[in-house]
Amino acid sequence: MKRNVILLHGLFGGLSNWEKVITHFQNDFNIHIPLLPIYNQHRENILEYLVSFLQHTIDSGQMEKVILVGNSLGGHVAIIYAHRYPQRVEKLVLTGSSGLYENYTVGSYIRRKDYFYLKERIEYTFYDPAVATATLIEEVMLTLADDQKCIRIIKTAQTTQRNYVTALLPQISMPVLLIWGAEDKITPPDVAREFKKSLPDSTLVFLSRCGHAPMMERPEEFNKLLEDFIC
């Protein structure tokens, strides 16, 4: 029986972020890429809401155990879920995860109609600015053009920056792989080292010439590391 892998995207991420991972693993694993309901209206803390959504996704899919792979916000959600439901998580993979420190302040106002400003902020995510394609920039601008979505993004970013997982990490006992961009400017290398120090059973690998989204910027190396860890 194929094992279940759940890929969790970041705040400005989407299903397309995992395209190379899906292609590489889809024949050997059941790959699930839920679209995190960041823009839904709800009364809960957004992280609690997303953890509940993940729990519903796993239950409704009748998955007894899963491998969680989370980037940025997705990693934050995966950490909380793995701590709360350790019996449901076989292995955990974090890449550029939030939860300790993020060098990316989102205030109450985003210059969402300023193409060149947004282009610069999106390029900041990567080591190679060419990864921030015109299509990617246009997708972000389209999202931010929606008033309600923009508000939800601001609130989500502010919540994650106030929510620290430091106390949870020593209690996460399953194997954890940390795949980190050596040039990640949003969650810098020291953040990865802090995760490594606090997680009891963890392995840390840095990818050179790589920023905040290794599965997009260094997909071959990312997939090889992931394959060695979960196969």
What does this structure look like?
- The chain is an alpha/beta fold and 231 residues long.
- It has a single domain, classed as Alpha/Beta hydrolase fold, catalytic domain (Rossmann fold, 3-Layer(aba) Sandwich).
- Helix content is 42%, strand content 15%.
- It contains 9 helices and 6 strands.
- The chain has helices at 19-25, 46-60, 73-84, 115-123, 134-144, 147-162, 189-198, 214-217, 219-230; strands at residues 3-8, 29-32, 66-71, 89-95, 176-181, 202-207.
- Helix 1 packs across helix 9 (219-230).
- The two termini are 13 Å apart.
- It holds the Pfam family Abhydrolase_6.
- This is Pimeloyl-ACP methyl ester carboxylesterase.
Regarding CATH, which class? Alpha Beta
**Number of spatially distinct domains:** 1
**Could you give the count of β-strands?**
6
Strand-residue proportion: 15-25%
Pfam families: Abhydrolase_6
Protein name: Pimeloyl-ACP methyl ester carboxylesterase
Domain AB hydrolase-1: 5-224
List the helices and strands and how they pair.
Blueprint: E1 3-8, H1 19-25, E2 29-32, H2 46-60, E3 66-71, H3 73-84, E4 89-95, H4 115-123, H5 134-144, H6 147-162, E5 176-181, H7 189-198, E6 202-207, H8 214-217, H9 219-230
Parallel strand pairs: 1-2, 1-3, 3-4, 4-5, 5-6
Helix pairs in contact: 1-9, 2-3, 4-5
